[in-house]
């Protein structure tokens, strides 16, 4: 063998290997050290597929077995038959296949004693690939045997990898087609993709739009793994991956087949003529490029599974959503109303308000300007209603030209009217359709409910009934107040019930806490009247105050409210040992009533209340009818020591002028600004401006509608002095309110 070394230089060596390619592992198992040296020397320059040979040495069968356990990727064993035992090599060959289960490694038996292990018998009994006497293996023959064995190993491994990959694809197919959520499906696909490629790889599943086979717009990552193996959130490709990887994905979108580089691979699969997905792998180990056919099969499987999931999701969404606008449809909207009524049933809200906006002459627009213009009018109307309604509102398209609105929270009837009018006004803004300026017209409808035992279908039907009545009234809103229905025996009947209710003591005051924004201590309450109807239970003001105002009964009811609140605050102040003020709402009818100031003087004298603890709240609508008279009365009240508050500040048009001329001590910020302050920059800016204005005018500020700790903290940070809302308590009977301030049941 040594003499034959001169032949080495003539052997082909192939192209130089790229430095990053891993070597072929070759195990020399022989108890003769000189065999190790000669073998290494004979094969020192050998390359196969650009990969050099890395030799491992074992001097016994036992040592070889240990190395095989440590290095499972050994490609070839050059195995001596006789080592520590006469049949050590044969025993090891059998153990490799049967005990270690390694059927990939190629085994070349080499023996110096051919007669001791006959060739035919050995080849038949043992799973080996070649059997040679050592004196047969000249350098040339050794090179040929090794090269052939490595090529066989490569083919066997490729077949095994393909078989394993196909098994993984089949397993993945079962998982993918069993998943109906497109987002979860995409994440599973990326996990399976990385499993197919091997440890350390990172994967992407990207969706791209095509026009005429050319990518358009920004590809969207549906799922992926980041550089550290963690999941990527869905988003725009350029925002989530380096530019180089993004370019590779775009290249795959336009390629006819797979594309790749030294450590990456990508392949596309069509979803439709205009849409395709791309599977992208990076950080691939050197020399371990995925098999293109298997990856093409997997990509197509993912594409079909995604399309199936999308169709199922679309069908499910179509059951509750309108495809043209993206809003809820009638079924979905009724479900939303039912959820709100469930909250009403359990005390989560005090009222529910459903608005209707019906587009007029929509059919004419469709016929004259075309269906495309009609569709654009629908989508524009949907967007305008959503923007006008603000956060928390639920919007729907409940008919061909009919939109519905479930107002957020527990709006008072007046608030519901204002919100619906704002949405209707937004809808009526002009827009250009087919080159013509169009002025949409609409008819509103409103159903307001404050009682339990109602159903979503009923509220929507009553809102539609209101809309039809509004049409007959030439667009003037004719709302339906469902909470007032039990009392609805006509104006005369309701007036008679209200009159007798006052005489029979059926009214009761509930109190909602007001806290100091700095200490979060309860320092005051707003008094809110409730009617304990003998057959219908507790009725809130929105159900009967409008009739009381129209009939003039609001004056005696308001006088009773003021007296009861004054007595209560005087009692609480004595019991708590500290001032506790109470705010009371005053109507326009009370302000205009002759002798109103005398009534207030009498209440102060007879109850013994400190007048500075009685705060009267008035809205802009209370003042606007006769500002001069209102200024005179409010100045008189201020002279009595009573403090005055401008209620619902920020919702009217003339508030700033009134602040200049009327003697207010407080401003109450409307809940509409508070509810949207966290999510909308505009609301925070308006609040900041209001609070700065109040500070300049030396006015205290109360924010109503505070429902979250985040709102409370932000209001305090902006300088608001007092907070009121469900976060600190709902309206409650006097006994419960007294316990909040340590005044017991007083």
What does this structure look like?
It is elongated, with a radius of gyration of 42 Å. It has an eight-stranded mixed beta barrel with strand order 21-22-24-25-26-27-28-29, surrounded by five helices. Strands 7, 8, 9, 10, 11, 12 and 13 form a seven-stranded antiparallel sheet that branches. The chain contains 26 helices and 30 strands. The chain is an alpha/beta fold. The N terminus is likely disordered. The termini are far apart.
SS content category: alpha/beta
What do the pLDDT scores average to?
82
Order of strands across the widest beta sheet?
21-22-24-25-26-27-28-29
Question: Helical amount among residues, as a percent range?
Answer: 40-55%
Unreliable sequence segments: 1-19, 484-491
Number of helical segments with 4 or more residues? 26
Strand % is 15-25%
The total beta strand count reads 30
How much is the radius of gyration in Å? 42 Å
> Outline, from the CA principal axes?
elongated
- Give the biggest beta sheet: 8 strands, mixed, barrel
N-end to C-end Cα span: 114 Å
Relevant terms:
746 residues; alpha/beta; 8-stranded mixed beta barrel; 7-stranded antiparallel beta sheet; 30 strands
């Amino acid at each position: 063998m040594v003499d034959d070394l001169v032949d080495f230089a003539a052997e082909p060596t192939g192209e130089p290997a790229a430095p990053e390619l891993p070597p072929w592992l070759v195990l020399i198992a022989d108890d003769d050290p000189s065999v190790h040296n000669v073998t290494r020397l004979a094969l020192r320059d050998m390359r196969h597929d650009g990969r050099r040979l890395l030799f491992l040495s074992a001097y016994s069968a036992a040592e070889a077995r240990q190395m095989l356990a440590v290095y499972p990727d050994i490609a070839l064993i050059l195995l001596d038959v006789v080592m520590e035992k006469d049949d050590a090599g044969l025993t090891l060959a059998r153990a490799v296949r049967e005990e270690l289960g390694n059927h990939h490694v190629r085994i070349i038996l080499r023996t110096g004693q051919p007669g001791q292990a006959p060739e035919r018998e050995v080849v038949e009994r043992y799973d080996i690939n070649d059997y040679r006497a050592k004196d047969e293996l000249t350098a040339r023959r050794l090179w040929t045997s090794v090269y052939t064995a490595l090529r066989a190993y490569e083919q066997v491994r490729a077949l095994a990898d393909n078989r394993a990959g196909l098994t993984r694809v089949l397993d993945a197919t079962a998982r993918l087609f069993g998943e109906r959520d497109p987002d979860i499906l995409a994440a599973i696909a990326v996990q399976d993709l990385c499993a197919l490629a091997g440890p350390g790889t990172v994967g992407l599943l990207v969706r791209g739009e095509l026009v005429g086979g050319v990518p358009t717009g920004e590809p969207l990552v549906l799922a992926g793994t980041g550089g550290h193996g963690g999941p990527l959130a869905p988003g725009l490709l350029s925002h989530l991956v380096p530019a180089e990887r993004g370019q590779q994905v775009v290249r795959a979108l336009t390629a006819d087949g797979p594309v790749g580089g030294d450590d990456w691979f990508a392949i596309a699969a069509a979803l439709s003529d205009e849409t395709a997905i791309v599977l992208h792998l990076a950080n691939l180990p050197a020399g371990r490029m995925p098999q293109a056919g298997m990856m093409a099969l997997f990509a197509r499987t993912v594409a079909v599974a995604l399309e199936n999931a999308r169709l199922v999701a679309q069908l499910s969404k179509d059951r509750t959503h309108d495809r043209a606008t993206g809003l809820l449809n009638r079924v979905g909207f009724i479900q939303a109303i039912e959820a709100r009524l469930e909250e009403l049933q359990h005390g989560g809200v005090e009222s529910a308000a459903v608005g209707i906006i019906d587009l007029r002459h929509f059919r004419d627009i469709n016929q004259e300007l075309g269906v495309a213009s009609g569709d654009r009018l629908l989508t524009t109307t949907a967007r305008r209603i959503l923007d006008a309604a603000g956060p928390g509102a639920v919007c729907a398209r409940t008919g061909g030209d009919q939109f519905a609105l479930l107002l957020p929270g527990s709006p008072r009837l007046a608030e519901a009217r204002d919100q619906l009018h704002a949405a209707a006004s937004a809808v009526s803004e002009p827009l250009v359709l087919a080159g013509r300026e169009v002025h949409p017209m609409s008819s509103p409808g409103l159903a307001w409910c404050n009682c339990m035992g109602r159903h979503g279908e009923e509220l929507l039907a009553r809102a539609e009934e209101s809309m039809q009545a509004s049409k007959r009234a030439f667009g003037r809103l004719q709302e339906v107040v469902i909470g007032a229905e039990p009392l609805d025996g006509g104006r005369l009947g309701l007036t008679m019930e209200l009159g007798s209710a006052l005489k029979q003591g059926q009214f009761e005051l509930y109190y909602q806490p007001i806290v100091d924004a700095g200490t979060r201590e309860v320092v005051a309450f707003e008094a809110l009247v409730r009617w304990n109807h003998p057959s219908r239970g507790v009725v809130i003001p929105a159900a009967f105050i409008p009739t009381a105002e129209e009939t003039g009964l609001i004056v005696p009811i308001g006088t009773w409210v003021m007296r009861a609140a004054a007595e209560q605050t005087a009692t609480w102040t004595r019991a708590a040992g500290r001032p506790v003020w109470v705010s009371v709402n005053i109507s326009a009818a009370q302000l205009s009533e002759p002798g109103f100031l005398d009534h207030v003087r009498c209440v102060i004298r007879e109850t013994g209340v400190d007048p500075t603890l009685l705060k009267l709240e008035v809205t802009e609508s209370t003042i606007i009818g006769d500002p001069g008279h209102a200024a005179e009365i409010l100045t008189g009240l201020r002279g009595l020591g009573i403090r005055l508050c401008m209620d619902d500040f920020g919702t009217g048009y003339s508030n700033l002028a009134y602040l200049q001329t009327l003697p207010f001590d407080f401003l109450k910020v409307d809940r509409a600004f508070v509810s949207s302050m966290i999510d909308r920059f505009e609301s925070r800016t308006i609040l900041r401006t209001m609070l700065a204005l109040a500070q300049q005018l030396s006015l205290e500020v109360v924010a109503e509608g505070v429902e979250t700790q985040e709102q409370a903290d932000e209001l305090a940070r902006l300088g608001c002095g007092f907070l009121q809302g469900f976060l600190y308590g709902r309206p409650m009977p006097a006994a419960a309110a007294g316990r909040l301030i340590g005044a017991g049941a007083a």
